Amino acid sequence: MIALHSQDYKKVTLGLGLGSFLVFCNLYYFQPLLPYFMVKFNATELQVNWLFSSTTLAIAISLLPWAILSEVIGRRPIMRCSLVLIPCINFLMFISPDLHTLILLRALLGIALAGFIAVAVAYMAEEFAPPALLIAVGGYISANTLGGIIGRIYGGVMTDAIGLQWTILAMSVISGIALLIIFPLILKQRHFTAQQGRLRTHGKQIIKHIKTPTLFFAMLIGGLNFSVFINIFSVMGFKLSAAPISLPASLLSLVFLCYLSGTLSAKFSGRWLHNNSLFSGLLLGIGISLVGLIILSLQTMLTIIIGLLVLSAGAFFIHALAYSHIGRSATQGKSTATALYLVMYYSGGSVGGFILIYCWQVGGWWTVLTATSIIHTLMVALVFALRFVSRRDTPPVITTFA
Questions:
Q1: pLDDT digits over 235-291, tens only?
Q2: What is the separation of C-alpha 209 from the centre of its chain, rounded to a whole number of angstroms?
Q3: pTM above 0.70?
Q4: Diameter of the chain by CA atoms?
Q5: Where does the pLDDT of residue 198 fall: very low under 50, low under 70, confident under 90, or very high at 90 and above?
Q6: C-alpha closest to that of 184 among 113, 85, 80
Q7: Closest CA relative to residue 180, chosen from 23, 26, 18, 66
Q8: Are 70 and 78 in contact (CB under 8 A)?
Q9: Which residues are CB-contacts of 345 (< 8 A; sequence separation ≥ 6)?
Q10: pLDDT value of residue 142
Q11: CA distance 274 to 222
Q12: How many other CB atoms are found less than 10 A from the CB of residue 326?
């Protein structure tokens, strides 16, 4: 097993961190450009939303197939295949002639990205010693966040500077060069054992997880949370790019720095669980998110920034609590359970985009606020349902988080 602070540990964590950074850069660098695409293709908000939602939806659909395939051929081949496809698909986007072709290629990119997302943590779990694993996963998640922020800023700044097509080509080149650095760092697995004929087993595990309320309710909470959080940023992008604010793409992309408050709140979630309950934490996160939405309703540049900071803090706090609950509570098939959580998570992001952007298109901010309030009400109901089934199903000796 790879020990903490060993040379192999440093190499592999650097390789996985860079891979994660690259994946999330590619996932998100189109998001701040949605208003730009409206003008370029003379399209509506809902039409250009497909450029982002098709990618997240494709990720959601592809996660479990990639994870199951990795049980047969290994984790490293899946990650390598995923990373190789990224520059190839970006190059096809560079020569893409129209919006519909670009949407199709973004969906294919989502399938490619899902390969790395689905198996990276499983690779670490098999190869790293337990103390090394805890630190490595934290670094991996940090790389996710940083890749998402830098990717968005890259998309906005580069498009204003050199135009969309050259921005896409540059991402293709950068992604290709990154492979030369990443591949030697991710070492061949020594502790992987191929599992043949596991499709039926995974299918049974998925059904069992869905039928387990303590897991399924947390998955739904995570999906609903992401459906609001990620798409409020898209809605605010349309708001800030329009008159009277009229921000260019380069400045609009800087709004995503508000994610940093979520990075801090996610780190605090573990400390919260040492002294408080999961359910009170989820309710706290929902309350913080609602406060952020109320602040956004004032609709000035300052209150939009403050509101997004508060919303990010609440949303990441909920995500960290729900995600960690899945890992702790799944007694069997933990990797399948966490993959299924991510399926719900990215599905929520995709479906929520069409709901909130439709609300924005037909009724403006107050219609969006009404929809998000309904979603948060559903989340509160699910938290109480989760609390009820947890108390019902958990033996008294281990009711720490009840």
A1: 999 999 988 888 999 999 999 999 889 888 887 887 787 788 899 999 999 999 999
A2: 21
A3: yes
A4: 63
A5: low
A6: 80
A7: 18
A8: yes
A9: 60, 219, 222, 223, 226, 319
A10: 78
A11: 21
A12: 23
Amino acid at position 271, single letter? R
- What residue type is assigned to position 326 of the chain? I
d(CA 105, CA 93) in angstroms, rounded, equals 6
Q: How far apart are the first and last CA of the chain?
A: 35
Q: Which amino acid is at 40?
A: K
Amino acid code (one letter) for 141: I
* DSSP secondary structure letters along 123-169: HHHHHB-HHHHHHHHHHHHHHHHHHHHHHHHHHHHHHHHH-HHHHHH
- Tens of pLDDT along 97-134? 899 999 999 999 999 999 999 888 888 888 998 888 86
Distance CA 318, CA 222 (A): 7
Give the DSSP letter of residue 261. H
Nearest to 367 by CA among 45, 84, 105, 118: 45
Written as one string, the DSSP assignment of 340-400 is: HHHHHHHHHHHHHHHHHHHHHHHH-HHHHHHHHHHHHHHHHHHHHHHHHHHHHHS-GGG-T
* Whole-angstrom distance, CA of residue 92 vs CA of residue 6: 40
Q: Is the pLDDT of residue 398 over 70?
A: no
Task: Report the candidate in 141, 134, 120 with the shortest Cα–Cα distance to residue 70.
Answer: 120
Q: Which residue has the tokens 């040492």?
A: 274
Residue type, 252: L
| Of 326, 336, 332, the residue nearest 390 (C-alpha) | 326
For residue 2, report the phi and psi dihedrals to the nearest 5 degrees. -80, 120
pLDDT at 150: 95
The DSSP secondary structure of 217-245, one letter per residue, reads: HHHHHHHHHHHHHHHHHHHHHHHHHSTTT
Amino acid at residue number 59: I
Asked whether 205 and 338 are in contact (CB, 8 A), the reply is: no
Q: What region does 371 belong to: left with phi over 0, alpha with psi -120 to 50, or beta? A: alpha
* Pair 362, 222: CB distance under 8 Å: no
Question: What pLDDT is stored for residue 245 in this prediction?
Answer: 87
- Per the CB < 8 A criterion, the answer to whether 314 and 285 are in contact is yes
Q: How far apart are CA 351 and CA 318, in angstroms?
A: 19
Tell me which of 305-309, 323-327, 371-375 is least confident: 323-327
Of 12-21, 262-271, 298-307, least confident by mean pLDDT is 262-271
